Fold these 4 entries.
Entry 1:
Amino acid sequence: MLKHLKKYWLEYVFFILLLNAVLCAIGFVHEELPIEYHEIKKIENEWGEEPLDKYLDKVLGMKNCTVMMAGTELDENIISKEIYEKMKSVGIPVMEDWSQVRKNGLIVLWSNGEVIDAKCCEGSPISYGSYINQHYVLLEGYVYFGFASIYLDDVLYSVSDSGLNIIVFDEKKEIIIDSVNFDYVNGKINIKR
């Protein structure tokens, strides 16, 4: 018996590993823990179509709210000098000259008056995932495809277009207050909700 085991030990190890993999795949050994998310309501607001600088003043000053931003193909038409200075003053990393880099991306997670995380990139996809009050937030920017997306609990809530996508989430009420996109098309800023 020992001689047989010495001769075929490697085959036994592989068999046990293969059996374990098969059992895991069909669910006998490993059972995923269910994560229960409740549906997040999205309210219709009456904010209108105010310019991005006034919009940022409003949402970055809100208490008990998380502001999520994801953008691609940003340029000086969307991020003006005034908006650049405003974002920089609150700790959001922005490129000094957006016009030099056409394929760019920006993601920002802002909560209760401070930057949780923010990234700026040139020419490569950008993403960030985190939990906010037991809700999973995923911010993505696909610079070569020209759109950015914001997910909350694996549900897409952003407009998901080029330009700057913003979602405002009220943490206490657990509702989405706003989902908006600012994009520069045909010589003007378009605002989509």
Entry 2:
Amino acid sequence: MKVFLKHLILLMACIMGITAALLLFKVPFVYSIFLCVVVYFSAVCYISQHIMSRTLAKKPNKFPQAFMLVEFGKIFLHIVVLAGFVYAHKNDPSSAKAFLVFFAAMFLIYLVFGTLELHRLASANRQHPGEK
């Protein structure tokens, strides 16, 4: 879990640095809410990874059910966040479009990151079952 946390912090720092640089240069379609989106995705990714690692260590036979439940919860949470932001900014379609594009990009980045880390965790558990 420590390796995952290091990778997550590094990914979050890189994305936040790029976003902050774009904010400093006053790129018109970059908003300060994007920094909150990065923190949101990092928190969701950490919580889901924590649940998956605990399930894999304690009850490996329940892992598929826990994985599907966590993924469903993440998708539902993402839909709620998207709907809330779009509803709150329904009078400003340009910011809503920019948010949707950024959110989709973050979703893909964190999906790939979470999948790679979960694969690393599962392969480590196959080699050394019962260890963290």
Entry 3:
Amino acid sequence: MEKQRVVKRVSIRNRHSKYKSNPRVFDVVLIGKRVFFEVKTGKDQLERIPFEDVIEQVESAVLQEQHTQSSQRTTAT
């Protein structure tokens, strides 16, 4: 598999931070037509995760929470 070069890197910042300069949380990296989140895990170490994996996990967490809340309402009545 050939290594594709990063087309664009965009810093994602916490706009609701209590700090005057909004801290960088992670970067969004575009490589070809793919989108990745890139997080610094240590000195000179980065972890890159595909955007679709993040979306899938967020949607799963939301559905699980909705199911939990629905079950709690059913048992409370």
Entry 4:
Amino acid sequence: MSLQHPRDGKPSFFGPALVGACTGVILSVPIAALTAAALGSTYETRALVYTCFLLWVVVGAITIFAKTYKAPQQPLSIKMTLIWCISLWLWPLLFLPIKKVKSARKD
């Protein structure tokens, strides 16, 4: 009798990627609130800035999670949590075209 999970070998939806995305969103809430407080002078302005930042982060979390949950996962650590948090704010960089640099080395 095997004690392995029956879906062993397939990517798990409930893995480090989901935990990283959720933790990144949780850490981004106070960042968005402090930034909105610094940028807005009225309640309406602060609420609009806060809402836009949270929408930005949630869309980033969904986008990055969709791109990474099937990849081989590293165990969640403080370093990976900080990388997730930063990635949630910078997620549009994933869609920038990447130019391949040709090697100048002679074989």
